[in-house]
Amino acid sequence: MITFALPKGRLAEKSAALLAKCGVDTAVLNEDTRKLVLESADGRCGFFLVKPADVPAYVEAGVADLGIVGKDTLIEEGRDLYEMLDLKMGECRLSIAGYPERRDVLTNPHLRVATKYVNTARRIFADREEIEIIPLHGSIELAPVTGLADVIFDVVQTGSTLKANGLVVLEDVYTGITARLVANKVCLKTKAEELLPLIEKLREAVK
Ligand code: PRP
After folding, report:
1. pLDDT band at 104 (very low <50, low <70, confident <90, very high)
2. Domains defined along the chain, listed by start
3. Residue 29 Cα, ligand 1 centroid: separation in angstroms?
4. How far does the centroid of ligand 1 lie from the alpha carbon of residue 160, in Å?
5. Which residue has its alpha carbon closest to ligand 1 atom 19?
6. Which atom in ligand 1 lies closest to the alpha carbon of residue 160?
7. In angstroms, rounded to a whole number, what is the distance separating the alpha carbons of residues 201 and 13?
8. How many other CB atoms are found less than 10 A from the CB of residue 76?
9. What average pLDDT does range 65-75 have in this prediction?
C-alpha cells in the first residue's frame, strides 16, 4: 500500500485530481467525512489528511511514503526528505508586504514582522540587528492594519487579501512557489517498485 500525506485546504482538490489522473483511486477523498485516515476502495492507497504545514513531518518520519506540499512549507520546515517533482499547481510567492505610503519602514532600525514563516523570516532578516518576528497562525494581513506589526512576510497568490486590506507587496523574496511531490528517503528505496511507477506517471501528468 502507498501512503500519502495530503494537504487539507487550498491544494486538496487539485491534489486529488492529479492523483486520479495518474490512476489512483481517490473516490474516498470526495466523501463528506471528518475521518483523517482514508483508504482507497481498491486497498492500494492510504491517505492522511493533514494541515499543509504538517505534511513534511509525516513524510520525513516515514508515516507517509509520499506527500504533496507547497514549496513555501518546505523552505520553512527544512525537513530531511526528497523533493521529487514540481507539480506546477497553486503558484504563489513569498513576499514582504505593507502599506504603500510607508515603504520606508523597511529601513527602520527596529522592524516588526508578522508571519507564519518564522524560520524563513529569521533567515531573510538575519543581517538586521533589531528585528522582531511576530509569529501568527493566520489572517496575517491584520497585523499591520491593527498596528501589531510594521510589515508582514507571507504568501501572496492572487493578491486579493492584500488589496482588500490596503496593503501592497514591498518586496518579493521567493517567486515560483508551487506544490511539490515529496518522498520519504527510506520508503523510496524499500517500496521503489510501488512508488517509482506512480512518480513517473505524475511526472508525465505535470509535463
Ligand atoms: C493565505 C495567506 C494570505 C492569503 C493570500 O492565507 O496567508 O492571507 O492566503 O492569498 P491571496 O493572495 O490569493 O489573497 P489563507 O487563505 O491560507 O488563510 P489564513 O489567513 O487562515 O492563513
Report:
1. confident
2. 2-90+178-206 (3.40.190.10), 92-176 (3.40.190.10)
3. 23
4. 9
5. 138
6. 14
7. 18
8. 20
9. 98
